[in-house]
Predict the 3D structure of the following.
Amino acid sequence: MKESPEVKKLGTTPLTREAFDALSRRAPKDKVLQKLREYAFTKIESIPFVSNTHPLWRHTKPELFDFGRVLSASPTPVELQVFNGDSAVVKGVELLNSTDVSSIPDSIVSELFFADKNSIDEDASNYLQLAVTLNTAFLRVRKNTDVKEILRLSYPIEAEACQTPLVVVLLEEGASLTLFEDLSGGKEAFVFPRFEIILRDNTHFNLVSQNRLEEDSRYLARHRLHAGRDVNASIFHSMIGAGVARLDLECRMLGSGTALDIASVYIADGHRHVDIHTVQDHLFPHCRSDLLSKGILHQKGRSVYHGYIKVAEGAQRTDAYQTNRNLVFSKEARADSIPNLQIKANDVKCSHGATVGEVSEDELFYLMTRGLSKVEAENLLVQGFLDEAIMRIKDETLLSLIHEQVMQRIEYDRKGSCENI
């Protein structure tokens, strides 16, 4: 596929007023969405577009994404199903798509995008996503609803398509939900979604998000979680697909007593490039966040991890931890890890760490003396390395599924070595 010429114009947006108006004519007649898109386009006009000198784009060059393709963005309805089932009807749960009706309430849009300023949103690519969004979905779980079923959220990803959905999930007070986001297929696609999760007080939420897109696709996602008081949440991302994949994950603690468990695994092999940016934003006291991100690299694979722990002045008694670990199988592979702390309170426990290491020859030798072949020994070490993160998935069904698919991705049971990842 030929790249759009706009991709070469670093620092300039591909979205002109004429192109924006043309997209608007294809968008749903949703006044709330129209207001948001117009706001985002105005912001794009007022700030420079992303370039190689932008602090959040120095390691993942903007030209890796063909931003010019947003001009051909197409609306795609978001689908909701019970995991391993056909029914999407669950008491206390509703999903609205803007392709049918106005979906996201105006008050929610104002809360998410107009209430306060967020520095990461000053990255023009985030405004670009909102400006070219042609479909929104609003998933609401009603107050005190305990959803026993796993709900699977997905949208069909067509070959060579550019898809830019905006998904908002709202758990009202006392609700609980386990949500599985499953993305697969999409030959030569550009998948450019935004995912906003609002967790009101006393909610329980588990998210497992899986990227299994085709190798020649591009994935650029922005996920934000807004957690109220006494929230318990687990967030897991499996980044094993797409030739270039970037995830921006921001978790904001907006009430005391909240606990967040955040984990991810990724594989960068061949010429794949994986980039994960995280923010653990502690705005209230007595909150905990624990992040673990682990990756496997081989051949000319490249990974970038950029993490921030932020603790506001009044967020005393914060516990915040951030760990990134990489296992490298090739001298040509490269892993960059940039952890950061920004602490304005004085009664906190915060730490961050990062490692990049190779497979231990001593461990391989030990396992081989116990009767394992080199392939089996390597696979066992890889499994043990990634399992530390995968085991953080709270739901046993999803844990088993992710474990199986990750092991298949690294060809765990294939005769060969990890050099064939």
Observations:
- The first helix runs from residue 17 to 26.
